[in-house]
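Here is the promised in-class demo. Please do not try to memorize the tokens; focus on the logic of going from shape to residues.
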């Protein structure tokens, strides 16, 4: 069996880390940094934004903004040690930013000394000092001589689809190999999001599997409003139940359909109420055997995580739960039985 890439993902607070914990119990499957979320593909100005900018409505000056915005974001991810999704120098590889620069060079046709209006969009203070410089020198300040101008060499790139995906895939796999994919199978949390799984075939080999985790929205709402938000761990869901339902439906309906046998849709609750069947499903789809599960219950225990289900049955949340039941019917989980009384939030 060759090395595999497994990606756990979900719909904000849906419990994908439970599947990360579970799969970490399998033989020869490395999970670098546990549930650390690697966002460099789907974050603003990440690889997917670069794809859209260079392949949809691109032009010379648009490509310059796209490439420099991408590099700026990759540098932030690489250098910022105290930014929770960052510090890639340690969390991914000391070579990460060099690989990002190599990727940009592979797409760049021309590096030009020209500049454009985007670079002349200065802050009020910078514009004032530039004006003073021009008045004092009685001359035009060229971009190379005006240190206050937002100047950088223009990077021009108009790749074909084939060129972009080829070079993006080389960049991604260079990063994955830095993380050890050449030596062992790799498990990464949130490397992709459900909203961009339709792109998966353009970026990954056939030995890649995505596990998409859903969760009953009643519990998601209650956890966010009454547990995570008060603990300053909130996800960006509205705390008003009416707004929550509107936002949740819009979020789920915005997901572009994907058709890929290597994308496995599951529920967080499946690990609790259908543990053995869920393991069998994952093993069959991914290609593991029961004997590969060498650390059973070491990181995920359904008898513990059951405390994090059916929270909506508490009388405190009755009215809000009922509203969600009526307005998000198709996203509810069908629980096979009532859990024991809640005795403490674990997950």
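The designed amino acids, position by position:
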């Amino acid at each position: 069996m060759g090395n595999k890439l497994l990606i756990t993902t979900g719909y904000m607070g849906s419990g994908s880390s439970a599947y990360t914990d579970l799969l970490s119990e399998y033989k020869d499957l490395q999970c670098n940094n546990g549930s650390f979320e690697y966002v460099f593909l789907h974050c603003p100005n990440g690889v997917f934004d670069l794809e859209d900018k260079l392949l949809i409505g691109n032009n010379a000056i648009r490509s310059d903004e796209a490439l420099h915005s991408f590099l700026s974001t990759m540098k932030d991810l690489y250098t910022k040690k105290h930014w929770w999704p960052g510090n890639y120098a340690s969390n991914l590889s000391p070579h990460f930013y060099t690989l990002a620069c190599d990727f940009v060079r592979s797409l760049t046709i021309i590096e030009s000394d020209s500049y454009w209006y985007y670079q002349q969009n200065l802050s009020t203070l910078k514009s004032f000092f530039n004006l003073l410089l021009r008045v004092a020198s009685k001359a035009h300040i060229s971009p190379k001589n005006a240190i206050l101008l937002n100047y950088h060499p223009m990077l021009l790139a108009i790749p074909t689809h084939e060129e972009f995906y080829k070079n993006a895939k080389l960049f991604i796999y260079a990063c994955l190999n830095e993380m050890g994919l050449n030596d062992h199978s790799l498990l990464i949390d949130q490397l992709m999001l459900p909203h961009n799984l339709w792109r998966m075939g353009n970026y990954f080999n056939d030995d890649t599997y995505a596990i998409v985790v859903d969760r009953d929205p009643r519990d998601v709402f209650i956890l966010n409003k009454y547990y995570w938000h008060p603990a300053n761990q909130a996800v960006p869901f509205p705390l008003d139940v009416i707004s929550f339902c509107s936002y949740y439906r819009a979020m789920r309906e915005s997901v572009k359909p994907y058709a890929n046998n290597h994308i496995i849709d599951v529920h967080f609750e499946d690990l609790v109420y259908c543990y053995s069947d869920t393991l069998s499903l994952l093993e069959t789809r991914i290609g593991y055997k029961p004997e590969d599960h060498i650390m059973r219950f070491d990181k995920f225990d359904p008898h513990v995580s059951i405390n994090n289900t059916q929270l909506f049955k508490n009388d405190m949340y009755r009215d809000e739960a009922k509203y969600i039941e009526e307005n998000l019917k198709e996203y509810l989980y069908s629980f096979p039985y009532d859990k024991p009384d809640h005795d403490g939030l674990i997950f």
